[in-house]
Write a structure and sequence with these properties.
418 residues, D-Maltodextrin-Binding Protein, domain 2, 2 domains, 10-stranded mixed sheet, globular
């Protein structure tokens, strides 16, 4: 938790009053909440310092919680008139936050529709409900393929795969087992609880010729030949090609950081952790194509104004939200956190597009799709269960997809029906 309160003593107070400046008793205090992630904490603290310097009449109190506790604390605090005035939320939680009246529409005079449409990537339109915007991101995310340069060199592989077929062959060369057949090193990580459920849903399903949902997001459409082929390809990395297993060294990022995984799919937000890992030499490339098709998944966290913020606090909250979504803030966020600017004018400059780390993610934004989740946790679990049904229970891919699609359709029907 971070809190900074300025103090003026003696003659300094009189001087401030004479100049019409705010004193500590006059200043408006607002709270900003986000989940605990070291790079994000550093970034927002830098932005708060800049904002308060430019707005001495506003104090921003920064609080963060472990991810596992975050949603619960937000849901409990705001209805009680406590907690954040500006809150960071995952875009997939928007409907739940709106339904619970935790967030309110952004003031249209400060955040006009025409400016948002012209200045932000199109995916931000998911925040527009009935003509009102309920949040704006400082940064957006896409996926890329991380590859271990040392392991590639040891295996005699020149560079990362460009297609799904090459992905399989490369993973085979990178996989190592002991005499008992136990995995010592995986060619590629399998992490459906991480970013892989997005890779299957928005990338593989589309690469095999289908789409995961109808255009309005209300109907599951992956119960198709394309969806079946997509999950078969994913499951075969375990069952047929034997280049990985679920939960190897706990999770994908742990295995890759330990130098025990040749490749992993992850987001730009992982750069900070990987860059700090001593001895880890890695490269980043765009997601492998299939039959000439390239797709990607995009997601983002937005900053919204809560129903707790009233009067002068709501005005201060709007001013702070505008500050942390302006171009300079996005560049700072990119440099500090590794997440991509939400404005094309910042992302699509040569220095960022050609950056060996940021570039592949930025290129992926051009062909990325954002899933309109109604319950991201439950929808992710269905993909986890689908893979388990195939790899652990021996169920056919067609049956596993049918079960997942039926259960997910129930989630969609329940939400949109209400």
């Amino acid at each position: 938790m971070r809190k900074r309160l300025g103090s003026l003593l003696g003659g300094a107070v009189g001087a401030a009053l004479a100049l019409g400046l705010a004193t500590p008793s006059q200043a408006v205090d607002i709270e900003y909440w986000q989940y605990a992630f070291t790079a994000r904490i550093d970034a927002i603290d830098k932005l708060i310092e800049q904002f308060e310097a430019a707005n001495p009449d506003i104090n921003v109190i920064h609080t963060n919680f472990p991810y596992a506790e975050y949603r619960t604390k937000v849901a409990a605090a705001i209805p009680a008139g406590e907690g954040p005035d500006v809150v960071q939320l995952y875009y997939g939680w928007l409907d739940a936050y709106r339904d619970a009246q935790l967030v309110v529409p952004l003031p249209a005079d400060a955040f006009p529709d025409a400016a948002i449409k012209s200045d932000f990537f199109p995916m931000v339109q998911a925040m527009n409900v009935g003509g009102d915007y309920y949040g704006l991101p400082t940064a957006v995310r896409s996926l890329a393929l991380f590859w271990n340069k040392k392991l590639f060199a040891e295996a005699g592989v020149d560079g990362p795969p460009e297609t799904l077929d090459e992905l399989v062959e490369t993973a085979k060369k990178l996989t190592k087992r002991d005499s008992g057949g136990n995995l010592l090193q995986v060619g590629i990580t399998i992490a459906p609880a991480g970013q892989d459920h997005h890779w299957w849903r928005e990338v593989l399903t589309r690469q095999f010729g289908g789409q995961p949902y109808s255009a309005d997001g209300r109907t599951v459409t992956y119960n198709s030949e394309a969806g079946i082929k997509a999950i078969e390809f994913y499951a075969n990395l375990i069952t047929e090609h034997k280049v990985s297993e679920i939960g190897f060294l706990t999770d994908g990022q742990t295995a890759f950081k330990a130098g025990k995984a040749g490749m992993t799919f992850d987001g730009s937000f992982r750069l900070g952790a990987f860059n700090k890992q001593r001895g880890l030499e890695y490269g980043i490339t765009e997601l492998p194509a299939h039959d000439g098709r390239r797709f990607n998944f995009s997601s983002y966290w937005v900053n919204g104004i809560t129903s707790k913020a009233q009067g002068e606090k709501r005005e201060a909250a709007a001013k702070f939200l505008a500050f942390i979504t302006q171009p300079d803030a996005m560049q700072l966020w990119l440099d500090t956190v590794g997440e991509l600017p939400a404005r094309p004018e910042v992302a699509l400059v040569p220095a960022n597009e050609n950056n060996p780390q940021f570039g592949p993610f930025i290129k992926g934004l051009a062909y990325a799709n954002a899933t309109h989740f109604v319950d991201e946790s439950a929808q992710r679990q269905l993909v986890i269960d689908m893979l388990d049904n195939i790899t652990l229970k021996g169920m056919s891919a067609a049956d596993a997809v049918a079960i997942a699609a039926e259960e997910e359709q129930k989630l969609l029907d329940k939400y949109y029906g209400s």
